[in-house]
Amino acid sequence: MTLHEILKAKGSKVHTISPETTLEEATRVLVHHNVGSLLVCDRDLGAGERVLGIITERDIIRFCASGKGALAAFTVADIMTVDVFTGCPEDSVETVMGLMTTRRIRHLPVLSAGRLVGLVSIGDVVKNQLDRLAMENQFMKNYITS
């Protein structure tokens, strides 16, 4: 199983935000779309979206706890993670699961030829593995009872 197959099942919609957006607005966008992360992108009509970083609910919570100031006074660029690990559609689910576990990554952008084609969460990866195991389990039950 590959990331391509996960994206085919879940869709390739990715919510993005610009680095100049305030943290207050980023919070609204997260809530509006009911997502846990936003990819921070530079939009180029010719080249597509270039991933600059990622901002998550946890990033915003940590910022709030730091007491540095109001969300409206800071931008996404001030707190985003810039060292973003990415995957490609051909990556196996097992490889991605290992990467996400060892690096403690909850959201992984998927790029194809440098272009953003989707985003998978650790929940997507776990669901895929559970579905696969359930199917194998059912196959084995059918084999034993027949």
Which terms would index this structure?
146 residues; alpha+beta; CBS-domain; three-stranded mixed beta sheet; two-stranded antiparallel ribbon
CATH top level label: Alpha Beta
Q: Give the number of helices.
A: 6
Oligomer: single chain
- Give the CATH architecture: Roll
Largest sheet: 3 strands, mixed
In whole angstroms, the N-to-C terminal distance is 28 Å
Could you name the CATH topology?
A: CBS-domain
So, the CATH homologous superfamily? CBS-domain
- Kindly name the structural category: alpha+beta
Number of strands: 5
Following the backbone from N to C, one meets helices and strands in this order, namely HEHEEHHHEEH
Task: Sum up the overall morphology in one term.
Answer: elongated
Percent strand: 15-25%
Average pLDDT number: 92
Task: List the domain count as a whole number.
Answer: 1
Return Rg in Å: 18 Å
Descriptive overview:
The protein is α+β, with helices and mostly antiparallel strands. The protein has a single domain (3-145), classed as CBS-domain. Helix content is 47%, strand content 22%. It is built from six helices and five strands; from the N terminus they run αβαββαααββα. The protein has helices spanning 3-10, 23-33, 57-66, 76-79, 93-103, 122-145; strands spanning 16-17, 37-44, 48-56, 107-112, 115-121. The strands form two sheets. A three-stranded mixed beta sheet has the order 1-2-3. Strands 4-5 form a two-stranded antiparallel sheet. Helix 5 (93-103) packs across helix 6. It is elongated and about 65 Å long.
